[in-house]
Design goal:
Layout (H helix, E strand, L loop, with lengths): L8 H27 L2 H5 L2 E8 L1 H4 L4 E3 L1 H12 L3 E14 L2 E13 L8 E15 L2 E16 L9 H11 L2
Parallel strand pairs: 1-6
Antiparallel strand pairs: 1-2, 3-4, 4-5, 5-6
Organism: Streptomyces hyaluromycini
Protein name: Nuclear transport factor 2 family protein
Pfam family, one: SnoaL_4
Amino acid sequence: MGLSTPPDTDVMVQNLWDRQQISDVMLRFGRGLDLHDWKLYADTLADPFEVDFFDLTGRPPATTTPSVWAEFASACLGRLVVMHQYSNFSIDVRGDEADGIFYHVSRHRMPNRNGDDQYTQYGWYENSFRRTDDGWKISRLKHTFQWCDGNPTLIDVSDPAWQAAAAAIFGA
């Protein structure tokens, strides 16, 4: 087996820089959720972008805007204490476009009278990214569960605010 010729140093540096910028987008994405900083969260998303949250919503992929999606995230998580951890970053940069897989453990907590006060999702994001004038943004957001533990009713899909936010994205 012969060794392949490494790319030009400028190409390697640009690739490493782009991968770091995309990683930072994912970290701001999670930080925005954890702090309930919906502007920080929305700023990680392209306008418009595609979202696939079938595992959570049971609804097919849709196209939406960052502000509408941030309202949905707030309706899902605003009343919870949350912590998102990401690992196993795998990023493929192709010029001004990129794809990435990011494993996640998403913890949700809310003391309540109806069951376990915690709900944890284990899975990954399969995202696409686009370079914009404001840096890298998520252009496709796909959230996949492998399994979940705890009380899924902490994300209250019967709440009218959740229903309205979901309808604004996925339709009735």
